[in-house]
TrEMBL record:
<protein>
    <recommendedName>
        <fullName>Threonyl/alanyl tRNA synthetase SAD domain-containing protein</fullName>
    </recommendedName>
</protein>
<feature type="domain" description="Threonyl/alanyl tRNA synthetase SAD">
    <location>
        <begin position="212"/>
        <end position="254"/>
    </location>
</feature>
<dbReference type="Pfam" id="PF07973">
    <property type="entry name" value="tRNA_SAD"/>
</dbReference>
<dbReference type="InterPro" id="IPR018163">
    <property type="entry name" value="Thr/Ala-tRNA-synth_IIc_edit"/>
</dbReference>
<dbReference type="InterPro" id="IPR051335">
    <property type="entry name" value="Alanyl-tRNA_Editing_Enzymes"/>
</dbReference>
<dbReference type="GO" id="GO:0005524">
    <property type="term" value="F:ATP binding"/>
</dbReference>
<dbReference type="InterPro" id="IPR012947">
    <property type="entry name" value="tRNA_SAD"/>
</dbReference>
<dbReference type="GO" id="GO:0006419">
    <property type="term" value="P:alanyl-tRNA aminoacylation"/>
</dbReference>
<dbReference type="Pfam" id="PF01411">
    <property type="entry name" value="tRNA-synt_2c"/>
</dbReference>
<comment type="similarity">
    <text>Belongs to the class-II aminoacyl-tRNA synthetase family. Alax-L subfamily.</text>
</comment>
<dbReference type="InterPro" id="IPR009000">
    <property type="entry name" value="Transl_B-barrel_sf"/>
</dbReference>
<dbReference type="InterPro" id="IPR018164">
    <property type="entry name" value="Ala-tRNA-synth_IIc_N"/>
</dbReference>
<dbReference type="GO" id="GO:0004813">
    <property type="term" value="F:alanine-tRNA ligase activity"/>
</dbReference>
Length: 261
């Protein structure tokens, strides 16, 4: 349960939700944010941009190698009046929804008002398949090359990759592709659980304190993860191993999934 200063991250419990009714906590201009929260948006910001926080959210904030969701907000029984262009999570646990009003009125949402959140379906689906695809590549690497240590994961479009300490070569690409294809075809379930003690896992996953959220492909691996996923490996679609590259003793396995299924 979130504290009074935090937003309850409903997407951690149910990534299938695409609409949610919740309560406004604040709505303010970007210029009024604390410096550490302003800095979450790189570069100059649109002067018309503002920030909404709510008691709960189903919109995923950028993090863990996954881009943020986009979406919209609407007062109950009204048309959407705010477009969410990016989402970030502050160190205090506030989830900030950056965006712009879509109406002529400059009136801000008021604390306590009930609003309906909507997630952009196509973007969420693609990001979830990219993220799950990275886990599939990671499991294939774990099964093929257990001696290699994973050092980084990136699930951004056109940048998706898994990085490992040690050297891999282009000749190993067909072997990795074959194992990835096998895991996808097996239609293995993506299992999400919470553990009280994650000391045996690399990293801390979705929270810095308290229970750790763990994603597993068919019980064959265990990875701390706060991202969104599709229900099974087959729903990722075909994963293409694009290339293998190396730099300073680290090997990068780049991959992609279809934009649409």
């Amino acid at each position: 349960m979130a504290t009074t200063s935090e937003t309850e991250a409903v997407y951690l419990q149910d990534a299938s939700l695409r609409t949610l009714t919740t309560e406004i906590l604040s709505h303010q201009p970007v210029s009024s944010l604390a410096e550490n929260e302003k800095s979450m948006i790189k570069g100059p910001t649109d002067p018309d941009m503002s920030v909404v926080t709510m008691r709960q959210t189903i919109l995923y904030p950028q993090g863990g190698g996954q881009p943020s969701d986009t979406g919209s907000l609407a007062l109950v029984d009204q048309e959407p009046s705010f477009t969410v262009s990016t989402v970030r999570k502050s160190s205090s646990g506030r989830i900030l929804h950056f965006g712009k009003s879509t109406t002529q009125s400059d009136q801000l949402f008021q604390k306590g008002q009930r609003v309906i959140q909507r997630v952009d379906d196509a973007k969420r689906d693609y990001h979830s398949r990219l993220h799950t695809g990275g886990h599939v590549v990671g499991l294939a690497m774990q099964l093929l090359f257990p001696e290699l240590k994973k050092v980084k994961a990136n699930h951004f479009p056109k940048e998706a990759c898994m990085e490992y300490e040690g050297l891999l070569y282009s000749e190993q690409k067909p072997v990795i592709q074959a194992k990835v294809d096998e895991l996808v075809s097996q239609d293995l379930p993506i299992l999400i659980s919470w553990v009280e003690d994650g000391s045996d896992l690399e990293g801390r996953g979705a929270r810095r304190d308290g229970p750790v959220r763990v994603a597993s492909i068919g019980g064959l691996d265990r990875n701390p993860c706060g991202g969104t996923h599709v229900p099974s490996t087959k729903q990722v679609g075909p994963i293409t191993i694009r290339k293998i590259s190396r730099q300073k003793g680290v090997s990068r396995v780049s991959y992609e999934v279809p934009l649409e299924m």
